[in-house]
Amino acid sequence: MAPESLQSLIYDDSGERPSLQVLDQLLVPDEKKYIDIPNVQAAWKVIRDMNIRGAPLIAIVACLGLSVDLKSTVISKELDEIEKVHGQDHFDAVFADVDGKMKYLLTSRPTAVNLSNAMAELRTEILKVKGTNPCEESESSSSYRQLIVAAVLQYARFMLDRDRNDNMALARFGAGAILNNKPSGTKVTIITICNTGSLATSHYGTALGVVRAIRDRDQLKKIVALETRPYNQGSRLTAFEIVEEKMPEGTLICDSMAAALMAKEKIDAVVIGADRVCANGDTANKVGSYALAIVAAAHNVPFYVASPCTTLDVNMAQGADITVEERPATELLSTSRAPKNIAVWNPAFDITPAKYISGIITEKGVILPTSDGTFDVPAFVKAHTEP
């Protein structure tokens, strides 16, 4: 289990008004400071400015931030006024207000599909309210407005709990896939990029969660983290998690050293996270993942993507269709000591073609490639979706 020191957020919905704080990951590992999130504007800002990051955590913070926003004193008064103006038939007006906040949150980071999936799911839950009779639905709810707010809070709590459960299940499947067909007790060496642990999710992690599960089986020989330029999520965050948990032979290398290490040492697997997995298996992840996949293929090292089902995008046919976010030049210049007047191209993500991926690890099982080297992600999702 991840220690309390690796808590990415603190959410309390036990009282009348929920509260949310998120760990400022830009300060880790030098400082542990939490940022208060009182409204959707604050949630948008910490996502956009990358105070928090990781596809699962982005979606969670957006939903939790919305729940805090809707119960805040200021927004409660605004909703009071909407209800007063429109009377009993105020569903459409309140929904339009809440939907506007969700659309605003969607603009924070466009590449990670978890956020758009979460907003779509939440919108569906809210629309279910329209066909109900508020007075019959709950003794404590007397209006559509109250039912809408309750639906948001309920979904936010559901999403938080689901993420934690999914992380644990995904980690077990991933550990099984990597250790499969190896002699009992064999210890393995894993390489990962970016940060996919407790700091990228609400609890255990995706790719680093797989590493934790292998460690918990006492079969982890060594974990290698790539620095992950230019924002250094590997050196700042993953290395921090490795050190905090005293993982065996935790080692940090520059991104450009992966090939040399694979030529020198036996590497059993590479495991990365994902911000979006297309229907054919093409995967968007932190820039540098594509190069790592090519290096792994050249050295016959299995390359796995750890992706909860909330990161699978069955409506996106292939990686070429993904809009890749480009970050400000200052993020690269400030960490490279380069001349300030040099032109900069700074994509946040790259696309790893499906042909380089050995398996996509989810909380429902591992998706394996078809005979042509691609994946049938929609078929997997359909097979594991409750009717």
Q: If helices are DSSP runs of H or I spanning 4 or more residues, what is the number of helices?
A: 13
Helicity range of the residues? Answer: 40-55%
Give the assembly state of these chains.
Answer: single chain
- Which sequence of SSEs, written as H and E, runs from N to C? EEEHHHHHHHEHEHEHEEEHEHEEEH
Strand arrangement within the widest β-sheet reads 6-5-4-7-10-12-13
Main β-sheet: number of strands, strand sense, barrel status? 7 strands, mixed
Strand residues, percent: 5-15%
**DSSP E strands, number:** 13
Summed over residues and divided by their number, the pLDDT gives a mean of: 94
Q: Which secondary-structure class do the elements indicate?
A: alpha/beta
Computed Rg: 22 Å
Low-confidence stretches: none
Shape, please? globular
End-to-end CA span: 33 Å
Observed structural traits:
387 residues, alpha/beta, 3-stranded antiparallel sheet, 13 helices, 13% strand
What does this molecule look like?
It contains 13 helices and 13 strands. With 387 residues, the chain is of the alpha/beta class. A 7-stranded mixed sheet has the order 6-5-4-7-10-12-13. Strands 1-2-3 form a 3-stranded antiparallel sheet, with helices on one face. α9 (233-244) links the parallel β5 (220-226) and β6. α2 packs antiparallel against α7 (144-179) and α4 runs antiparallel to α5. The radius of gyration is 22 Å and the shape is globular.
Give the topology:
Elements (H helix, E strand, L loop, with lengths): L8 E4 L6 E5 L10 E3 L3 H9 L6 H17 L1 H14 L4 H16 L6 H16 L5 H4 L6 H36 L8 E5 L14 H10 L3 E7 L6 H12 L6 E3 L4 H7 L4 E4 L3 E2 L5 E4 L2 H10 L4 E4 L22 H5 L15 E4 L6 E4 L2 E3 L9 H7 L4
Parallel strand pairs: 4-5, 4-7, 5-6, 7-10, 10-12
Antiparallel strand pairs: 1-2, 2-3, 8-9, 9-11, 12-13
